[in-house]
From TrEMBL:
This is Peptidase. PROSITE patterns: LON_N (PS51787). InterPro entries: Lon_prtase_N, Lon_prtase_N_sf, PUA-like_sf. PANTHER family: ATP-DEPENDENT PROTEASE LA (LON) DOMAIN PROTEIN. Residues 1-189 form the Lon N-terminal domain.
Length: 211
């Protein structure tokens, strides 16, 4: 087991995604300052199953999250803006709520080696999302080439709720996650055709807007 500082969020992040985040709560400011003093600069991002990002109450968390490496910190009045890159997935085995100002988890790593992504899975996800977009009369802008960012972008473009996004994270390795979003594209396309849904533009994004 390895210890990992936790940053609970009201969203799901996937491996391969870079994201900005505004940090203002004292406990997470303390976490960032601790990370800046370490070599690994790694922390865990995990989605909140029930509860809120802010406040004294400890939220109920999903067990599987994604580690992120702190890349840059910008200081502003009253808060920090951090830039981080998601890397490997983990499973939470236990959470220490009192050893530090922030949550620290004992985690088991799920991605133990570099992943070889199946080309057919990448191409299949791209085709499925393009087909979904045509079904809803949408124009697709900016699908990335990288398999990890492609998965996140397609998931963003589908606009699915958090539990569905969490299932993609939990689906397995990068190839399994691509196949998961491919199935979701087919499902949403079928629903769109039944319900006669139409949209103007679908703009996938692999970045999380600052909150």
């Amino acid at each position: 087991m390895e210890s990992l500082p936790l940053f609970p969020l009201g969203t799901v992040l996937l491996p391969g995604v870079r994201f900005p985040l505004r940090v203002f709560e004292p406990r997470y400011v303390a976490m960032v300052r601790h990370l800046e003093s370490t070599t690994a600069r790694e922390f865990g991002v995990v989605a909140i199953r029930r509860g809120h990002e802010v406040g004294s109450h400890i939220p109920e968390l999903y067990r599987i999250g994604c580690a992120a490496v702190l890349k840059n910190v910008t200081r502003a009045e009253g808060h920090l803006v951090i830039e981080a890159a998601c890397s490997r997935r983990f499973r939470i085995e236990s959470v220490d709520e009192g050893g530090a100002p922030y949550l620290v988890a004992s985690v088991e790593w799920l991605d133990l080696q570099a992943e070889d992504v199946a080309v057919e899975a990448t191409n299949g996800a791209r085709r499925a999302f393009e087909s979904f977009s045509r079904a809803v009369g949408a124009h697709v802008q900016g699908l990335p080439q990288d398999p990890g960012r492609l998965t996140a972008s397609v998931l963003d473009g589908l606009g699915l709720p958090l539990p569905e996004r969490q299932k993609v994270l939990e689906a397995g390795d990068a190839t399994a996650r691509l196949r998961a979003v491919t199935r979701l594209c087919h499902r949403e396309e079928g629903l769109a055709e039944v319900l006669h849904c139409r949209a103007a533009t679908v703009t996938p994004s692999s970045r999380l807007s600052p909150n």
